[in-house]
Amino acid sequence: MIGRIHSVETFGTVDGPGIRFILFMQGCALKCQYCHNRDTWSLNDGKEMTIEEVLSEIESYLPYYRSSGGGLTVSGGEPTLQGPFVKELFRQVKERWDLHTTLDTNGVNEVTKLADLYDLTDLVLLDIKHINNEKHMSLTGVPNTRTLETARWLSDHGKKMWIRHVFVPTINDAEEDLLELGRFIGSLQGVEKVDILPYHQMGVYKWEHLGEKYPLEGVPSPTPEEVERAQRLIDQGRKEAVQNKQ
Ligand code: SF4
Questions:
Q1: Section 191-195 average pLDDT
Q2: Omega of the bond leading into 18 within 30 degrees of 0 (cis)
Q3: Which pLDDT score is estimated for 244?
Q4: Is there an atom of ligand 1 within 6 Å of 105 CB?
Q5: CA 196, CA 187: separation in Å to the nearest integer?
Q6: Closest of 146, 173, 191 to residue 231, by C-alpha
Q7: Is the separation of the CB atoms in 22 and 9 below 8 Å?
Q8: Where is the Radical SAM core domain (predicted)?
Q9: Which residues, listed in sequence order, are joined to residue 74 by a DSSP beta bridge?
Q10: Mapping DSSP to helix (H, G, I), strand (E, B) and coil, where does residue 176 land?
Q11: What is the pLDDT of residue 146?
């Protein structure tokens, strides 16, 4: 089986627990205005790799992943666009080495069609880009309905999740949106962590390289105080949701 791969990282430390092999898959159907991996969008780019080739790269560093409680993370792009490849890869790393598996996804592909893949996934890093559907549409080009359905399905099926939210001043910093995001997260089971990722401009050169205008030109990164405020509002929303359940 062959996958289209954008790149690999052998010592990842933020995309799941421990030290991890990160496989960045090529291809994404969203058009996030802040995308720092603009060069992953096309499904025709990247390089072709077989499962066996990926496994042999992982094997070289296996002792580090094992001794640190780490494993394999598949990210992108959007890895579920190549769901059968990722599923087979996860199946094999589990069968050979019983390795911990993490899937980093925007949750937009229909979750019920990916149940077999999620069954082989120990942890899902789920990106919720905007809780407000209209604003999600203008930020990414698609509604957030499927992402929220994925979150609910994962919650109902006892899966572990880290929710990720790229926080962008002027785009998703409204008080009501952050509270609402918190309320939604608070209504889920299995959320082990909520990561607020401060927006940065490090991927702008990739848009320029492709001859494209960067959509968020002039939008600044958030200050530490702004990130703290976002965290506080999300926490408050989570608490409200928990209190409402009691
Ligand atoms: S989902 Fe990720 S890779 Fe796809 S456009 Fe958005 S930020 Fe970029």
A1: 98
A2: no
A3: 87
A4: no
A5: 18
A6: 173
A7: yes
A8: 14-238
A9: 23, 103
A10: helix
A11: 98
Segment 98-123 shows an average pLDDT of 97
- 């926080």: which residue's tokens? 167
Write down the H helix ranges in 114-223.
115-119, 133-140, 145-156, 175-186, 204-209
CA of 81 to the centre of ligand 1 (A): 12
Is pLDDT at 76 greater than 90 in this prediction? yes
Edge to edge, the sheet with strand 123-127 lists 47-50, 2-12, 20-25, 71-75, 100-105, 123-127, 161-167, 191-198
Q: Rounded CA gap, 74 and 43, in Å?
A: 16
CB 60 within 8 A of CB 73: no
- Measure 75 CA to ligand 1 centroid, in angstroms: 10
Q: Element (H or E) spanning 75, and its range?
A: strand 71-75
| For residue 14, pLDDT beyond 90 | yes
CB 159 within 8 A of CB 204: no
Compute the distance between CA of residue 9 and CA of residue 212 in angstroms, rounded to an integer. 27
Q: Indicate the pTM of the whole model.
A: 0.97
- Tokens standing for 7? 């790149």
pLDDT of residue 246: 78
Tell me the pLDDT tens digit for each residue of 23-33. Answer: 999 999 999 99
Q: Look up residue 73 and give its two tokens.
A: 């993370």
Given this model, what pLDDT does residue 245 score?
80
Closest atom of ligand 1 relative to the 76 alpha carbon: 3
Alpha helices for 22-79 (secondary structure H): 51-60, 62-67
Instruction: Name all contacts of 133-140 with Cβ < 8 Å and 24+ positions apart.
Output: 135/171, 135/172, 135/177, 139/32, 139/33, 139/34, 139/171, 139/172, 140/30, 140/31, 140/32, 140/33, 140/106
